[in-house]
Amino acid sequence: MIKELLDKASVAYYEGNPIISDEEFDRLSEHSGYTKLGAPAPNAVPHFAKMYSQQKVHFGEEEPNLPDSVKTPKLDGAAISLLYISIDDVMCLSKILTRGDGVKGQDVTEKLRHLVPESFCASLPHKVYQINCEVVASKEIPNARNYAAGAMGLKSVDEIMTRDLSVVAYGKVPLASTYLDDLALLQMWGFTTVAANLEKFPTDGFVIRVNDNKLYESMGYTSKHPRGSYALKPKAQIVVTTLNSVEWQVGRSGVVSPVAILEPVMIGDATISRATLHNMSYIEALNLELGCQVEVIRSGEIIPRIVGRYE
What we know:
Elements: H1 2-14, H2 22-32, E1 45-46, E2 56-58, E3 69-75, E4 78-87, E5 90-98, E6 104-105, H3 109-112, E7 119-122, E8 128-137, H4 144-151, H5 157-161, E9 165-173, H6 179-188, E10 192-193, E11 203-210, H7 213-219, E12 229-233, E13 239-250, E14 256-267, E15 270-276, H8 280-285, E16 293-299, E17 303-309
Parallel strand pairs: 2-12, 9-10
Antiparallel strand pairs: 1-6, 3-11, 4-5, 4-8, 5-7, 8-9, 11-12, 13-14, 13-16, 14-15, 16-17
Helix pairs in contact: 1-2
């Protein structure tokens, strides 16, 4: 049951319509041993270069020993790739794809092209570049990650253009000599990069990456992750309490959703007595029933969410 929910959540996320948070997805994956990565998008288009995810390491755990490494913020948004092709010695935007399953993504060029440079720089050594980026929204916006990722699922380009979104570049292919060189080049080409001041955007830890790109490539890849980098993330505090009852509420969009009424419990400096349950499929997948013990987190240290039944 949980596997089916995670399959559905994976597809929804990579289509730009996330139905659960990253913390919930990670926690449910740990519970169930779920290892599937990504989901192909409808009418998927191949990336020029595969987009890998990062191996996750939590604060306090043993970290990989990477020499000459660079630390950048891990933005909490939605990954995309930009394809630029040389036309008359000018690099021109050709395509924008969602991350999808890392091999193929959904074409969102017309939805997002207003957020990135249409062209840049002449006389470069390569005729094709893929620039990997994150679509993000200000952390002042409620549920900023879903706000950003959800924009790619909107049908109306005009509606997308009203959203307060930004695109931040974190890498490119082909690589320069060092990762810092890559970021400097991206900035010179007109992109905001993860080396800039990004305090206005939500982050989810850091990315630690080998700076020397020759060494980075020689370290190789697993089927999912590069061996020359990893994500260092905070681990959500999990508390156990009792599910006393369930109420149904109507959201601003008119959707009716269940809310858990909990035995009050402290998470950090807040007393938590209510938590989102999303929908009946989520309740059934976690095998929840009144009076059972549940595991609760504050997603993004803000929104209380049930992430599992405590046995």
